[in-house]
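[Discussion] Sanity-checking designs against the backbone

I'm trying to build intuition for which residues belong where. Below is a structure token string of 286 positions. I'd appreciate it if someone posts a full sequence so I can compare it with mine line by line.
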């Protein structure tokens, strides 16, 4: 390979540094503001990149009330249960659709692909949820989005790329379809399952629209609290005595943003090594 010209190398370094700056600056500003006092926020026109005297007053104010803590627990439960349920349904359907002898397999695949092009709309979905008795029920945040057609196609394409001789050998050893899926297919599919699981988890974690439609305000997960307080500027319906709040409002808003980012940001490094392999495996085949 030809050695890059020094000017070209310098431009690449400059471009990467600029991208890193544009990516990290908003995150550092949010974190720094959440750790700042009112005089420091006012002196820096509302955003503090590096606080001179960091304080945890905003986080203490949030967790002392209980609204954000309860919403955080709800979001974690919805995300974990929803992700596991979606993975189970997607993997089961994807594996079934790889079988050529499946009765009605083409129909089920076409029906799944149809949902990528057309959706029922807000009002029919709301009426369906109401008829099923799922209003004010957390299942309304999981069941309507339990299966993603795109994720189904990716996992199905990966399963089809596995050596069929290996599956036939497992069948000759006495394993049934379920045994082959659990003992042969799934151990070979860690990369694609990690990626699809991350897709599902991010979707469940960030979902607020269905919560706004189907849940009461005392059942809202964290994204709705973030929307109401940080975006719309509405006060938290908290039991905290507002006269005892010493943290500035903008610092509390930024602290809510940080709390909403931490769980997904903490999970991503553990799945990053699977990300490229998992996505490309399905994309190249499909």
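Best answer:
Here's mine. Compare freely.
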């Amino acid at each position: 390979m030809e050695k890059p010209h020094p000017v070209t190398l310098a431009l690449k370094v400059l471009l990467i540094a600029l991208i890193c700056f544009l990516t990290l600056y908003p995150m550092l500003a949010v974190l720094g503001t959440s750790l700042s006092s009112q005089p420091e926020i006012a002196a820096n026109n509302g955003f503090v990149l590096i606080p001179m005297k960091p304080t945890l007053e905003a986080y203490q104010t949030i967790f002392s009330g209980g609204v954000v803590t309860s919403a955080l627990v709800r979001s974690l439960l919805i995300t974990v249960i929803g992700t596991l349920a979606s993975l189970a349904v997607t993997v089961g359907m994807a594996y079934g659709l790889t079988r050529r002898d499946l009765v009605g397999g083409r129909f089920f695949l076409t029906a799944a692909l149809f949902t990528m092009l057309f959706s029922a709309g807000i009002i029919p979905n709301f009426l369906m949820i109401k008829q099923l008795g799922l209003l004010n029920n957390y299942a309304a945040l999981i069941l309507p989005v339990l299966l993603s057609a795109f994720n189904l196609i990716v996992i199905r394409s990966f399963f089809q790329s596995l050596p069929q001789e290996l599956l036939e050998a497992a069948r000759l050893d006495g394993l049934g379809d379920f045994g082959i899926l659990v003992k042969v297919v799934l151990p070979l599919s860690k990369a694609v399952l990690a990626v699809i699981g991350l897709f599902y988890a991010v979707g469940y974690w960030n979902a607020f629209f269905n919560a706004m439609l189907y849940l009461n305000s005392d059942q809202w997960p964290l994204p709705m609290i973030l929307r109401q307080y940080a975006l719309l500027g509405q006060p938290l319906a908290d039991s905290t005595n507002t006269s005892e709040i010493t943290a500035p409002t903008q610092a509390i808003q930024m602290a809510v943003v940080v709390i909403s980012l931490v769980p997904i940001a903490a999970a991503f490094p553990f799945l990053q090594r699977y990300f490229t392999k998992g996505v490309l495996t399905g994309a190249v085949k499909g």
